[in-house]
Amino acid sequence: MAAQRNYDLDALRGLAALSVAVGHCATAIGGVGPALRMTIETAPDATLQDGVFRLLHIVFHADAAVIVFFVLSGLVLSRSLRSRDDGIVAYIVRRTFRLFPVAAASALIIGYLTPASTWSQILGASILYDTSLNGVLWTLQIEVWGSLWVYAAATGRRIHPALFYAFVAATIAVSYFDHRPVPLFMSAFALGAIIDDLPATVITRVAAVLGLVALMTADFMLGQGFAMRCWQMAGAVCVVAYISRNSIWLTANRFAHFLGRISYPFYLLHLAGALIVAKLGVRSLDLNPFSLFAVYSVTSIAIAIALAWITHLAVEVPGMAMGEKTRRLLAAPRPAPKVA
Description:
Order of helices and strands: HHHHHHHHHHHHHHH
Oligomer: single chain
Shape: globular
Number of strands: 0
Number of domains: 1
Number of helices: 15
């Protein structure tokens, strides 16, 4: 029997996607200097404008939201494989239909809005190979590797739990020595995969609040580096673990659930909203940086939500349905040959 869907986790993914969008707006208006990279050591020398935009980056932390994506995928994919496993081929087919149709649709839209784009870039973005057209696609490349990691881990768990935990430990150990994106972020999938094994005594509201603080302030307190990533991942685990077992208003309201439904196309298509806003001349308005940020954020996000909803209905839902239909065909037992 398939596991019951947790809509609060979907909502958390949607809110994380919104955080990425707002964070990117803050970068577009506030710049990539002190407003983005400020730490507790450099804060005393910051201007008021840089300080406000740095606070926006903490509250709407695009980088931390990506870690939440990875931990969520580790948890949700592990749960789906515990309740049903039709084999590696069916799993890959289902994930392919889940990820690539929306990626292709977003590549076409963004390519159309970017006059300098080439068909090579559009094709590369459609298959998650080329990130030059849409910078956020690097996270989808990690997602593909993470999907394979989760299947390998789930297979190990079915053989023997000790093999699963050895695989998790090895993954975390590798990330300690190899800080390249794929080895490093597989630890986030690994931590997500063990959330359901955590005792209820450690999954508390206090732990979730402390985890959220660690998640959002790690780069401000520690600066860039491996230690910062460790704090982010630990914080993301605390937050995801709590939401996986508790419903709170932030993830239980209708808007959050709506964002959860369209989170994937919204995540990919906020750039399209930003490009449309740029064509409308919003960034050239004679406004102070804070007002410009507000106008730019609201308009680009509103356009992206509209595009995401259309893409969700026209591409994502049919794609998932096709993936599920194909999975069932692959999983269906073949009739035994008749003996003459």
